Amino acid sequence: MSMADFKARWDAHIQRTGWPDYGFVRANLGDYPISAEDRNWLVGIGLPKDASFFSFDEFPEDGLKPVLSIYGRPGDWTDADRERTARYLYLGCDGGGNPVCIDSQDGNIVMLNHENEFWPYDMVNSSVRQFAESLLAYAEIIEDFQSEYGDVDPYEDGLPADMHAAAEARLREIDPGAFGERSFWRGVLDDIRRA
Q: Is residue 137 exposed (0-12), middle (13-18) or buried (19+ Cβ within 10 Å)?
């Protein structure tokens, strides 16, 4: 999906649902070795400021920062902590304060556990583009569910089996690599599975 197609679909989703449009945040990546595709996406369109599970603040003008420069004070971390986490560039966080980061070594989008010294605990997506597309797909999945079932919380009632299977197929198509053992999207799908 191109950036223009993504933006058009995101805007159409916002218009159909009446959800607030907080806009997008773009990032300067500094000198980090990020793939051209991820660099182009983050500079060209960025990420929606508020998307399902995540919120993305304005990025620093001088580029993305390692996660430990965002959390705590410099004296809070050992040199070993800073070295271990330097590869994780902060993009935003989930509702619990866990940072979502781009791994500057492989381009994966990962969740770090802020209660466990910022060790990775979930792989979210394989690239920034796939992350953005998955956020959009999830928003559209929930939109489809609520247009059929009303303003029902899919976490309370779960998706019917056919909708759930279609949702999983759609997310897997966007990023097959995001469905490993410690997968964010696998966890989301488990949470909205109808019992």
A: buried
Q: How many Cβ atoms from other residues are within 10 Å of residue 118's Cβ?
A: 22
Tens of pLDDT, residues 55-108:
787 677 667 888 888 887 777 888 888 888 889 998 888 888 889 999 988 999
Number of structural domains found in the chain: 2
Report which of 38, 32, 25, 24 is spatially closest to residue 88, judged by C-alpha positions.
Answer: 32
Residue carrying structure tokens 């779960």: 158
Do residues 41 and 109 both lie within one domain? yes
Q: Is the dihedral of CA 44, 49, 184, 172 positive or negative?
A: negative
CB 43 within 8 A of CB 26: yes
93 and 171 assigned to the same domain: no
Cα gap 88→86, rounded to integer Å = 6
Identify whether residues 63 and 158 lie together within a single domain: no
To the question of pTM greater than 0.85 for the whole model, the response is: yes
Q: Write down which residue in 126, 145, 174 finishes a domain.
A: 126
